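User: Second chain of the day. Same drill as before.
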Amino acid sequence: WSKSGEMLFADYATRGFQNQHVLSLDMKNQQMETLIHEQSKTNIDNFFYTVIEEKGKILFASERNGWRQLYLLDLKTKVVTHLAEGEYYVNDVIYIDEKAGIVYFTASGKETGSNPYQQYLYKVSIEKNDLKLLTPEKFNHDISFSPDGKYFTDNYSTTQQPTTTVLRDSNTGKILVELAIADITGLNALN
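Assistant: Same format as last time:
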């Protein structure tokens, strides 16, 4: 629902998951409109969308370019914009600052010289489409945001490096404090 209650947004997939639809229903005049229609010859995995009402946009994930990436639909013009285009896979949208128009997401396969399965945290402005890496260390990053979006915890590790947990600033990615390091001495003693 829109905040005013005048617009309903809904989605559905057809049997076989080869078509995904996002619709709007104007409650004043009972007019329904298809906003997004995704198609695939095989199937559509992990379709995601959210309405960013303050900016008049719908953010959605699509594999229309061969990679799972983020796109924006302008609700007024119906123009679709590709956000942070590239050859990498978007894993998840972690946090959206609707007021500032910033999307925080994890992605894999973008950082040269890194394990393509490791995920990193990025942010992108929906107005400027400027991508910024917030977790540059060559580890897998598991992220959790504070409710106000100002900070996030980052649990990073590899198969050879035990988990380190840090608190970071969400604007810059700067590490503010180290919170914990996993103690694996007992595990190492088994070898």
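The mean pLDDT is 92.

User: Great, on to the next one.
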